[in-house]
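hiii so my PI (J.) wants the whole complex modelled not just the main chain, which honestly fair. so below is everything: four entries, each one labled with what it is. i double checked the lines twice but i was tired so who knows lol
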Amino acid sequence: MALLEIKDLRIEFPSRRGTMVAVDKVSLQVNPGEVLGVVGESGAGKSTIGNAVIGLLEPPGRMAAGEVYLKGERIDNLSDREKRKLRGKRIGMIFQDPLTSLDPLQTIEKQLVETIELHLDVTEAEAKDRAVDLLRQVGIPDPEHRVKQYPHQFSGGMRQRVVIALALCAEPEVIIADEPTTALDVSIQAQILELIKKLCVEKNVGMMIITHDMGVIADVTDRVAVMYRGNLVEEGTTAKILGDPDHPYTQSLISAVPRPDKRLDRFPLVEYIESAGETKKSLDIANHWLGQARDFGDHYTGPLIHVENLYMRFLTKNSIFKKNRSYFDAVKDANFEINSGEIFGLVGESGSGKSTIARMISGLYTPAEGSIYFAGTDLTQITTEKKRDHFRRQMQMIFQDPFSSLNPRMKVMDIIAEPIRFHGLASSRAETESIVRDLLDHVGLGVAAAMKYPHEFSGGQRQRISIARALATRPRFLICDEPTSALDVSIQAQILNLLKDLQAELGLTMLFISHDLPVIRQMCDKVGVMRYGQLLEVAETEQLFENPQHEYSQHLLELMPKLTNVKAA
Amino acid sequence: MKQALKRFFDGDLWYSFSHSPVVILSAVITLLIILSAIFAPMIAPHNPFDLASIDIMDSNLPPAWNEFDGDMRFLLGTDDQGRDILSTILYGARISLLVGFASVAFSVVLGVGLGLISGYAGGRTDTFIMRIADVQLSFPAILIALLIDGVARGIFPRDLHDELAVYVLIFAIGISGWVQYARTVRGATMVEKGKEYVQAARVIGIRPGTILFRHILPNVTGPVLVIGTIHLALAIITEATLSFLGVGVPPTTPSLGTLIRIGNDYLFSGEWWISIFPGIALILLVLAVNLLGDWLRDALNPKLR
Amino acid sequence: MTLFKKSLLVAAAIGAIAMAAPSQAQTFKYAFQGDLGSLDPYSLNETFTLGFQGNFYDALTAYDENLKLIPALATSWENPEPNKWIFHLREGVKFHNGNPFTADDVIFSWKRAQTDGSDLRGRAGQIASMTKVDDYTIEATTSQPNAVLMQDLTFLYIMDKEWSEENNTLEATSPSDTNTNNYANLHENGTGPFMVVERQPDVKTKLVRFDGYWKDIKSNVKEIEFTPIKQAATRVAALISGEMDLVYPVPVQDWQRLDEAKGVAPLTGPEARTIFLGMDQERDELLYSNIKGKNPLKDQKVRAAFAHALNLDAIKQKIMRGASTSAGTLIAPQINGYNAEIAKPYTYDPKLSKQLLTEAGYPDGFEIGMDCPNDRYVNDEKTCQAVASMLAKVGIKVDLNAQPKAKYFAKILATGGFDTSFYLLGWTPGSIDAHNAILNLLHSVNKDAQQGMFNLGHYSNARVDELTGEIGKETDPAKRQAMIDEAFQIVKDEVGYLPLHQQPLSWGVRDGVSVVQRADNVLDFRNIVVPE
Amino acid sequence: MISFIVKRLLQSVMVMLTVAFVAFALFNYVGDPISNMVGQDTTFAEREQLREQLGLNDPFLVQFGRFVGNAVQGDFGLSYHHKQPVSNLIAERMPATLELSFISALISLLLGIPLGVYTALNRDSIMTKIIMTGSLIGVSLPTFLIGILMILLFGVVWRVLPTFGRGDVVMLGWWSTGLLTVTGLKSIIMPAFTLALFQMTLIMRLVRAEMLEVLRTDFIKFARARGLPRRSVNYRHALKNTLVPVITITGLQIGSIIAFAIITESVFQWPGMGLLFIQAISDVDIPIMAAYLVMIALFFVVINLIVDILYFLVDPRLRVDRVSGSH
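here's the output for the full assembly
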């Protein structure tokens, strides 16, 4: 008998514009000791399933049809009170963001003890002992001491361990983990996944992991259910789904996952989804505005970017007295070069300083020490805004978050036209507008997009707008700061393809920043590995992946999800 | 334009508006009062500000329906100078609304400006502006208004006083309100400043001033609108309160608050209509504006939808 | 924690005692709109303060219920020569602390009233020298004959020399005092019928009966509690709700309410204060006017036009609810020197007014700025508004500036450079004699000689100036009256001022309580009788 | 922590100096104090002499310097009107104002917080709508009118509550309290409610808004996912987190309660500092006005400090030296 069984689930979100069906006709089973992965892209309805099972659907969402059984016992029609008794006691839940999942005002002990006492018939002393024990089980060092601390005193990974401990408190039979590692760095992610897997086997609980990350699926799940737009399109063992998927959606989804093992020219696109047709329209670059005037007047032939002894410091504690101030070195002594026409990658975990370097080059931060040469000119020595504008025009940046990188109050036309107007690149309003339209066309959005506002577009489309804006100054150097990490994998493939094409057409030089090693492998010619503000190793991409020199590079590569059994594209 | 209208009527704001009778009623009342205030000279039966037209012998007449002294010329009765209450309410609402709107506008301009600068510049500028805000906070609105009124009367020549009274009120109420806007906008600016669209603008080379006004300002107006609505109600009440303390518009051109204060003297003597009718007008106006502000707060807060 | 509990217990005990204390005495509670400035009798020359102090202090002379001069600490006086005075003092009078009252106390008081902080230097200064003849006789000289000396002395209270010396209060209380805690400011030791036992400025003042008072008085009150209540509505409410035995002033419009309410009634009467309008007749160009280059108010016709435009009867009926007396001259009937013939108001005749304006060259009228207090006199601001409205009907556009008295006086008095062209003012001659009004209001302005200091519009007539001096010296009543009449008639003919009315005294009293309402608005405790 | 308090105190001193300076700069224009200190017969030479003695003819900076020099020694000079040391007057009046403010703060908190919680937890109930709209009516009328109407009803028509003053007071040392006598307690009801009305509405709305926000956070969702009972989720977790931001605003509100007491005190003839101040304005009693403004600033500063310390106590995140995320 299955531990948790979901039959013909249908979840609806009624609204004034009609009823939105988030999940329809979904049937799933979780067996003891088994990890079931539910995978899908955003909007597939996978999270609502988890919420529906524990009875915490956000209003106005409701279960319109279907049944949920726990050990053969129907639970979806229980009263609120009875459902509450199940939560935590028999079904545990782990959420995505460990930073916000814990009550900031109470100690870990209080939160644990409260939950333990609620579900188990124990004395307070026993509950406290159990709390410490749980922390030990989830791998928190020195649990006797740390149990007295507050959440903010734990790092993100440690907090997720605490969250897991809380979910395990009452030894539930089923654990539902909703994107449990998405907010974590690769190395932490690996540890948490390992922990989950271990607990699952040891305690013989059934686990449902909801994720968008094929790497996670490949690493921990036994079986996988693939969701697409509220429907279950395919279910099977992990090996089967990854290696030999039946459904065309699954096939294209898996093929769109960047491959860590070898470099491809272009990403295979997910053809199943409608927006896949939005590729760029071809444009005769040489005769177009974009292709013209690419002579920047310096005839410089050396490396376009040359970074020398770069340092960046942030003040962490201010004081009137100099000696009491303390600083955090975000970047320490970075040195590298980027040749014209090259894509240079920077890889590292969060806080490693890779974005800080990008911001220093683009002029958002002023370096504490060191020089940045752009086409032979030291940018740090430029004093007037006017002179700086000359270089600003030549380098542009694409940001990570497609939702915040466009001003929500401006029309797409104005967003893209702004750099053209500011740098005086067009002689008339009509010319500007026609250039914007061409750019939109070129990034695959179509002319009609110009009169709309950013919120009318999806994440991938917005990132195209960002790219169009970056191209609008006719730059020769493009900085991409995690341009696809907020996107679904199928969209990511489109955007990366677009960037590759543009780079080739316009001969752009790029600095490409990512935490995702497979993406780096697909995109970059040369890679720098960063940790704690230090650039540890710079190497040709293939060389790095085949033969990493630095210990940390080796470590990172080891942690990289292998997807070994994935069917070759 | 057509498209914008269509989008508006399709939007959530209009939906939540059109589905809440209380909010619609509030909007109608507010609009009615504002319109009748604007067109007071056309719709009011008398001109209470024209001294030559009022007769002391008509003073303290009860509402027209009073069987003994009611006078059909004066629907809601007259005040102690023989002014028609209805007309005076209409004209008074004009002044109350003028003071309300103008002082809110003043605080908004000052507060939003300083908030933007403070939030965007950070560092010493920020500290400096926020310390000024602290000082400002330790002078509550009423105290500021009392002091400023005193000062203005001291500084400006006498023949300007009557015209100045309204401006003094606007300035005094306005200056005490900016801190809230500044703090809110500062917070919002600090959030917006970190957003990538601002960094994109900086990478392009756009100058701070332009970034502040073209990029950040439109994105921090939501909370300003909400505070502004509630502040409008507060400003109108403050004006009324100040008139109680003897600081306010001249009695020859009374605002709603001044009228209530005048009527206050006649509450015991049974001439209730002098203060109660303007009081009702004030409650209706302020309540409607507050309800609108409430609704706007919820409707504009994406998290509460 | 325990400490806190303990103190709570103690506090509760104290509370219980306080609550248990029965009120045995007949207590009289009353409220006025303000508080007295100080207990020190020389710190403020203001009627309410002096009137209140008269309940615990006595002067050499006093007013009776009808403002008639009666002997007090002086049993009699003589004026053997024009500038020489002899006072015979009352024997057997005791101060509240038991000290006997003697001539030394009088001389000490006269001297103390002339110290730097004193606000009664004007009154005390009338006497140039004072010498003790014996313990109960004093000889005084004045620098010139003085017809109203005895009136001026009614408010010059006598303090105890020994007590003052013991408590080191040899000078009058003044804010600039270096002796920061002038004992007399919060304590008293008078000879009056009541003693102050508790004094919280602006909050509460409690007095009890002084058993050793030298005179038999009507009052049966044992204890008096005085509370200033600024807001008229609150004050009236306190009376109606039964918390007060007497409150004043009561807004005139509330009389009817008091009449209808159970257990209370309004007590009204004419006050000796005359309210009038003054006009700038000096400047060559009005301050706040659209007429440039000349001053219309210098033209008698214009002033007369103003006078005839004012409907005093309407003001009386509507603003003052019939409680005032319309006036044609600057002194009230209670004032020595009043003449009913001259006091007839100007006729209300807007047509004549229009015609006069046309004759004067202003057929369409003109603009004028008007200054008005809004917390000084009965319905002052409302009166000004009514005046503005009446003048508007003959074409005079009045720009009214009504302010609290502090700002108002700062602006219009000499200290503010007489910054006004049209104003409302009230005047009660402190000596209850016409001379005081003539000197202050009618005499040409002379800062050095302190003449015409409240003649804010600079009305000036040589004959009036001459008469002023004569009236001050003349001691023959008939001759004096003739001169007073002449002066007021001149002003009336020239329309130097626009008298409005004598405002009413307006008190609210609990039924059964008997008080005497004096025309100077002073409540004399000696006359309060409460039901047993 | 200590350095934080010291820093805060230094800033506070600056704030108070600024307040004093601004206040003083304004006093030159509020009217002529002399004409209110003397009777109408006082000669102009005498008036001028007094003006000279009071130092009113000195340059502004000299007057200000003298004021600050004396004020730091607790000496605010003599009141022009009362001819008493201002510090004594303020000390006499302070208990009345503080008791009134305290009681009305208590009322607004005791009513405002539960109502805010209730309306947040029952977002769409009819009762919530009634409370939300009803609370607005209370703040849509000027305080003075509410006060007068209350006096009219409770004092005059029904005669159940005193119409003015503090009733009987009991001295506890130098502190006079009206909270220990029946008349004192009865007297405080109307003014305290009048004063509390506005703040109560504000606090209620604030608590509601914050609570709604907190209820949407992940940790509340997680707490519910752990099966914690409604009560624990709503009160132990949600309410406690709600109160953190509420503390600041409430602190500021208590400050403005003290200032707004001016109106209430003047309507109910409540013998507090506000009444003293309003009287001082009409008397142009500059020493009292200056001292009052500085006292108000002091209250604000002290309350701010207390709020900051409370923050430290309530929010564990602030207790450790935090690394400010300046980037």
